[in-house]
Amino acid sequence: MKKPLRKPPSRGFTIIEIMVVVVIIGILAAAIMPQFLGTTQDAKVSTAKSNIAELETALGMFNLHMDRHPTTEEGLKVLVEAPAGEEGKWRGPYIRLLRPDPWGNPFQYRLPGTHRTSGFDLWSRGADGADGGQGEAADIGNW
Questions:
Q1: 83 within 8 A of 52, measured Cβ to Cβ
Q2: Are 83 and 89 in contact (CB under 8 A)?
Q3: Residue 17: its pLDDT value, please?
Q4: How confident is the model at residue 38 (pLDDT cuts 50, 70, 90)?
């Protein structure tokens, strides 16, 4: 007489083993995520500083061609569009596109500056989108 065939024992994971893996992944994520979140903010600040430097260079070229800086009312749009009545002197566009800051807000421009009284102020309002602030909400400017 032949012996009945037995099923081999299943080789799946137990619920306890799965829970242990999930807990370990959770602990690792909790330890690593804050490092990446800080890196994102640092990258945005670096990008804002780089954009400000690019805009300062373009404003310098505008000043060279027009013998003046843009007024506060004209703002940064004169870097991509000629100011009314001065199309003959304007040799732009000085930048291809007037992009917002890394937080999606427009860059700010003021002449005469309050931080740089002999020139202009150019700044991003930072993560909070409002003037002033500290830490992550601090303004990033050319001063």
A1: no
A2: no
A3: 87
A4: low
Rounded distance between C-alpha atoms, residue 45 and residue 39, angstroms: 10
Listing DSSP states for the chain in one string gives -PPPPPPPPP----HHHHHHHHHHHHHHHHHHHHHHHHHHHHHHHHHHHHHHHHHHHHHHHHHHHHSSPPPTTTGGGGGTSPPTT-TTT----SSS--PPPTTS---EEESS-SSSTTS-EEEE-TTTTSSS-SGGG--EE--
In residues, how long is the chain? 143
Tokens of 62: 């505008």
Class of CATH domain 39-141 = alpha beta
Rg (alpha carbons) of the chain, rounded to whole number:
28
pLDDT in tens, 73-90: 999 999 999 999 888 889
Domain boundaries, given as residue ranges, for the chain: 39-141
Q: Whole-model pTM?
A: 0.71
